[in-house]
Amino acid sequence: MTLIAVGFGSNLGDRRAHLDAGLAWLAAHARPTARSSLYESAPIGPVVQGPFLNAVAVFETDESPKQVLSRLLEGELRQERVRDVPWGPRTLDLDLLLYGDRTVEQPGLKVPHPQLTVRRFVLEPLLEAWPDAALPDGSPLASFLGSVDDQDVKQIGDWAVPRWLAIRWWWQRRRRS
To answer: Is 93 a catalytic residue?
Structure first.
């Protein structure tokens, strides 16, 4: 099993419901081990849009990086993610941030995520969920936090697992036993 970190973001519709649905989707395919609080951040890029709700969850998986990417893209589609405007608003954005201690460079997939160390809305929740997370070269991700202090990111509360999701996880674990 490999430990992976996935970034969650949403700035359209019921942002919390989109994150919860993404978490449920991934939890049906990988074992969740930790999750961050919820954070709110300003959008990045040239498109005028509302603020994002962000979080990070850590999972154990036996799927390959490419299989994980396929799951993430499918999860986005399930939440009706539309990719018609680059850097535009989205119902759900799922990013593979880390895949164990591996570096992955495949068409359409780079891990660690290329922007991981320069985005506070990713680093802060990632380090909350996985405090000793590091780059494949061993560099602790906590060492990059000081360089992103100027970015406006607010922790806004717990990402408590909704009751329906907790029941689903219990049922899945029971069926696997």
So the answer is: yes
